[in-house]
Design brief:
Helix content is about 80%, strand content about 0%. By secondary structure, it is mostly helical. The chain has one domain: MetI-like (MetI-like fold), CATH 1.10.3720.10. The relative contact order is 0.13.
Length: about 270
């Protein structure tokens, strides 16, 4: 059974990552051929960084991702703290509503937000599809992920610490920044990195809500409709590498947090 499970696991990995490996290898191919290897070159990467369309899309993507990550982190952290203080039944209802954008198909979210923005623009003359609507849409679907990363840290925190700080004469606002914030900071940072990654990687919602503003995934899609150029291979390789680095950072932070929790539990047990 162990041998079968190992074979099955390797087959899954091959099925998932073999196409990506082929794409990455042929991004260095000294030919436009997607079948024949003609030697190593970095020319496609050089051409990529001289492509104004790609550079503009990359700039838009990074601006949107940074704004989205910051806003989603602030709003998500505040929402998590508010949800934590609710009673059991209200908390359950609010959490279900918060999780709705994650379980809702992206195509439904994208179309519904497009209709909302078109209505607001046609009726009220505000929010023409573009950079602003992209940021709002990205914050909407990234927000629940921040909440889900912050909530476990709030549950792990001793609820009496904040009250003890106030009993000792600390004002509520300084008490929050000195007591609560350091305790939940790992969850906040992880949620922020995840929001940034999801924003960079999104295609469906960006496609419907972006108007004339293109993000990197949408630009890649537009280019592949004409011809699959080796520049797309190079761009996809860079994008995959960036996302992988961010995911590794998230996983390393989670492992470090787990080790800290185990160490603190052992210290409490010994005491």
């Amino acid at each position: 059974m162990k041998a079968i499970s190992k074979i099955y696991t390797w087959l899954i990995f091959i099925f998932l990552y073999a196409p990506i490996v082929v794409l990455m290898v042929f991004s260095f191919n000294d030919s436009k051929s997607r079948v024949v290897w003609n030697g190593f070159t970095l020319s496609w990467y050089e051409r990529l960084f001289h492509n104004e369309e790609i550079l503009n899309a990359l700039t838009n993507t990074l601006i949107i991702a940074v704004i989205t990550a910051v806003c989603a982190t602030i709003l998500g952290t505040a929402a998590a703290i508010g949800i934590r203080s609710m009673n059991k039944w209200v908390k359950r209802v609010v959490m279900n509503l918060t999780n709705l954008p994650m379980v809702n198909p992206e195509i439904v979210t994208g179309v519904s937000m497009l209709l909302l923005f078109v209505f607001l623009h046609d009726r009220l003359g505000i929010l023409k599809p573009g950079m602003a609507t992209l940021v709002i849409a990205h914050i909407t679907f990234c927000l629940p992920y921040v909440v889900l990363n912050v909530m476990p840290k709030l549950r792990q925190m001793d609820p009496h610490l904040y009250e003890a700080a106030q009993d000792l004469g600390c004002h509520p606002v300084p008490a929050f920044f000195k007591v609560v914030l350091p305790e939940i900071m790992p969850g906040i940072v992880t949620g922020m990195i995840m929001a940034f990654t999801l924003s960079i990687d999104d295609f469906v919602i960006s496609y419907f809500t972006g108007g004339t503003t293109q993000t990197l995934p949408v630009a890649i899609y537009s280019m592949t409709r004409k011809i699959v150029s080796p520049e797309i291979n190079a761009l996809s390789t860079i994008l995959f590498g960036a996302v992988m680095i961010l995911l590794i950072i998230i996983n390393l932070r989670q492992i470090r947090d787990q080790k800290r929790q185990k160490a603190s539990r052992k210290g409490v047990a010994k005491a």
